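# step 3/5: fold
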Amino acid sequence: MDYRRLGHSGLRVPALSFGTGTFGGGNDFFKAWGSTDAAGAARLIDICLDHGVSMFDSADVYSGGLAEQILGEAIRGKRQRLLISTKATFPTGDGPNDFGSSRQHLTEAVDKALQRLGTDHIDLLQLHGQDYNTPVEETLATLDQFVRAGKVRYVGCSNFSGWHLMKSLAAADRYGYPRYAAHQAYYSLLNRDYEWELMPLGRDQGVGAVVWSPLGWGKLTGKIRRGQPAVPGTRAHDIAGTGPRFEEERLFRIVDALDVVAKDCGKTIAQVALNWLLRKPTISSVIIGARNEEQLVQNIGAIGWSLTPEQEASLDEASVVSPAYPVWHQRGFAMLNERR
């Protein structure tokens, strides 16, 4: 396994992490991801650890906390061998303080997460989304208290816009609070918006990307092609219409290009799509998921080899999309974009 620094922090994380959204299946949405129980989770975690996949990502809203609980049960006796990453911010109840990044909600969320996980600390705590109603200074001061108390080792965010992330980093520097070491962001061949503003920000500010849904919400597995729609029992079918938007013809063009590269290097389409991500700047770790052992081992096979520059360029070309303003305008002035 390749281990990388989490942004500019001192923490080293595996290039591949395991996502626990498939644990529990607490409702119809998460059942489409998977319904792994504690015994099945323990087996998948053992396989991960055997291959060096030693960071496990969860969230308090995954199956209403059941995913964290199953993860906690599955890692008993193994805690010192792995890193736990989890998230909080999204609604966990109907109360007026059951959501957000306020001191009130985050304090309750972290204490409950620690209890479900059966541990005394979270290695990486990430805000699951932006909260425009809470001052960033309040959020950062609360995270600082968690770090000082030993409940949390490192902090990060997820699904932030560039301006909100930069605002938080500036406030952290101003008041001496912990900086976000990680940004858990969506990035794949199917949706490359991350490259427009968040990637340059990450390079400049030392924020490492932890990529979620690297296979484009299940669309880049090779199972969906022209005239071959998603089949029942898969996430692409059972929760169709959720997740990021894309043009169908563009998806088929990307899959065609992945087919060519996969045959050329003797790998699966999913392995090629994951390897493409691992070559990109700012990527600290890519979160893989699996319903079963076969899927897990196959995804881990994205490590230990590398696409050629020509293969990478062919995938870049097949997946290119016109960026939003002002990115397309800025790209017209190469001399302003070069680091000197």
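# step 4/5: annotate
Residues 38 and 70 are 5 Å apart (CA to CA).
# step 5/5: archive (pending)
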